[in-house]
């Protein structure tokens, strides 16, 4: 659960300069400075103990204390229910109960109770970060009680249960063995979308992102291409009738390569000249506000005789040697979105 | 049989506030499965709440209510120790009744 830590860091982003200035004046007053630069001082064991509050799955790090489900309910109603809901069911902040057993279903409900693999992590998290409006204000007994109650809300502990350093590590979470690293948001051909190995030789030079709808979902909402609103420059996918083939590498792109256009233009990224997708967005004749009626003829003329000042100070030299049919193929490909 | 409801009922002054979390698929009848076949509707249709045997809320629900519904309502009356009972019936005729004590 690293999210809260990350946002803390972000909030502290503005502080380091101030902190550094303070540390420098503090060293002078606090006696011997350490290290090469004479900054800082060794942390005392009391300071380390204050920071070192992590709890391990085997229970290492758990403080003394004890709390019951019933005690936890009272504290929870007073200090947690406003954000997480009476039953931990509210997802306006983060749903902490419910969904146990749904992770492998087609409608997984991801909550603390259904996801977490160790109950000790729940204790650690509550002690470290909750309640979010006043973190680290709870005594150890209260954290044990709240942990017990959150587990009870998830039907993992019975209503008469209590927890302490001995019993907490023995609680088995429903998703104890469910954690994997080899998965992503989507699966493609049985493989996760994120597992990748760094390429060192013969690597792809251009990365193309694409998305697709699974075949079974195509007709569900009629033909998306026909429902496309003319105000946005997004091509609607044709979702009824023959299922379209996977797009072939554009012939226009091949010509652009052959004619040397890519020496100055990127398809998507920057170059001396504008990226072809940016050109497409500017002129595309699709009824969008930026629609330019005679775009094709104008751009053809630009390629033949050259142009300047539209995209920046660098001019494009005229290229009369390029056959008109070739140039037209490239321009049409650009205007169709340079895909 | 469906999982039990979670029910909390608390009296403040002359009003009792009841919160209920039900466990139900609440299938709308409008989704399709991976084969493109419509998944048949299956949702809670009626909800009835009683306080010491007297009806304090009765509701008819349709497919627009989300999975695992959360219901909260208040009624005039109620005292600590009284019983509140909730019953739902779904489109398959399944039914479930659970009870809580007002605290």
Report on the structure:
The complex is a heterodimer of chains A (339) and B (103). Chain A is mostly helical and 339 residues long. Chain A folds into two domains: 53-170, Cytochrome c-like domain (Cytochrome Bc1 Complex, Chain D, domain 2, Orthogonal Bundle), CATH 1.10.760; 215-335, Cytochrome c-like domain (Cytochrome Bc1 Complex, Chain D, domain 2), CATH 1.10.760.10. Chain A is 35% helix and 4% strand. Chain A has helices spanning 3-11, 16-29, 45-51, 69-79, 81-84, 112-115, 119-129, 140-153, 224-227, 251-258, 276-283, 295-305, 324-335; strands at 66-68, 162-164, 187-188, 191-192, 306-307, 316-317. In chain A, strand 3 (187-188) and strand 4 (191-192) form a beta hairpin. Chain A is elongated and about 85 Å long. The two termini of chain A are 39 Å apart. Residues 1-30 of chain A have low confidence and may be disordered. Chain B has 103 residues and is mostly beta strands. Chain B has one domain (6-27, 39-101): Immunoglobulins (Immunoglobulin-like). Chain B is built from no helices and seven strands. Chain B has strands spanning 6-12, 15-21, 44-51, 54-60, 70-76, 83-90, 95-101. In chain B, strands 4-3-6-7 form a four-stranded antiparallel sheet, with no helix packed on it. A three-stranded antiparallel sheet of chain B has the order 1-2-5, with no helix packed on it. The A-B interface holds A 85-87, 89-90, 98, 107, 109, 153, 155, 216-217, 219-220 and B 3, 6, 8, 19, 21, 32, 34-36, 67-68, 70.
